[in-house]
Design goal:
- With about 250 residues, the protein is of the alpha/beta class.
- The protein has one domain: NAD(P)-binding Rossmann-like Domain (Rossmann fold, 3-Layer(aba) Sandwich), CATH 3.40.50.720.
- The chain is about 45% helix and about 15% strand.
- The chain has helices at about 15-25, 40-50, 60-75, 100-130, 160-180, 195-200, 205-210, 220-235, and strands at about 5-10, 30-35, 50-55, 80-85, 95, 100, 140-145, 185-190, 240-245.
- The strands form 2 sheets. It has a 7-stranded parallel sheet with strand order 3-2-1-4-7-8-9, with helices on both faces. A two-stranded antiparallel ribbon has the order 5-6.
- The N and C termini lie far apart (about 40 Å).
């Protein structure tokens, strides 16, 4: 799919891989709606790329519906959705203070898993009403963001791993559900990416994590995620797949 001239939505677009993906999409001619709950940084990214900034709580049914409608009104129906919004608080299932509060678990599931599905269903519904872009019948592409924690969750990552594992399981099912509409669904599972969240960790922790990558021995860069997202959009045969972006890393228990 050639995204030039078409609308795209990026959630979690205020920083990290979301912001870099929004920039990459704009550079190839897409009209980008940057969505996030962090208003200031989101608006700064949108100004930089000539897109629109739309505040969106992805876990809210009404909020997301209004945000997608606003994006549609401003730019047209999105042909591309890249779900980057997510949170990653760490807490063990049981600690000295007792069991993990259920609300801590459900909050992560609501943002990471339910939130991604929320935008997926809304954008897919919009695309259902749009004409196909080519003789094959493609209408659009949806990219979700999982994590290598979906496969090798570390201690303290119960909620995060479960949420990302849900996205992995959703990938082929959603691709099958939406195949008749000409909508592809793909998931990227990043490893250690140099985002503000990771770079905010103590240096010794960062060094330990980077050493777990066989090659190259460094953190991934947000622009490398963005490049992969663009390739997925352009390559019509990539569908129903989960692609690890991790330099061969396999996460250790801690």
């Amino acid at each position: 799919m050639n995204v030039s001239g078409h609308a795209a939505i990026v959630t979690g677009g205020a920083s990290g891989i979301g912001a870099e993906t929004a920039r990459a999409l704009a550079q190839v001619g897409a009209k980008v709606a940057v969505m996030d709950v962090n208003t200031g940084p989101m608006e700064a990214v949108a100004r930089e790329i000539g897109g629109v900034a739309i505040k969106c709580d992805v876990a809210s049914a009404d909020g997301a519906e209004h945000a997608v409608a606003e994006a549609r009104h401003a730019l047209g129906a999105a042909r591309v959705l890249v779900n980057c919004a997510g949170i990653a608080p760490a807490k063990r299932i049981v600690s000295r203070s007792g069991p993990m509060p259920l609300s801590d678990f459900t909050k992560v599931i609501d943002v990471n898993l339910v939130g991604s599905f929320n935008l997926l269903r809304l954008v897919a519904a919009d695309l259902y009403a749009e004409d196909a872009l080519d003789e094959v019948g493609e209408r659009g592409v949806i990219i979700n963001t999982a994590s290598v924690a979906a496969f090798e969750g570390q201690m303290g990552q119960a909620a995060y791993s479960a949420s990302k594992g849900g996205l992995v399981a959703l990938t082929i099912q959603a691709a099958r559900d939406l195949s008749g509409m000409g909508i592809r669904v793909v998931t990227i599972a990043p490893g250690f990416i140099a985002t503000p969240m990771l770079l905010g960790m103590p240096q010794d922790v960062q060094d330990s994590l980077a050493a777990q990558t066989p090659f190259p021995k460094r953190f991934g860069r947000p622009e490398e995620y963005a490049k992969l997202a663009l390739h997925i959009i352009e390559n019509q045969m990539i569908n129903g797949e989960v692609i690890r972006l991790d330099g061969g890393a396999r996460m250790q228990p801690r």
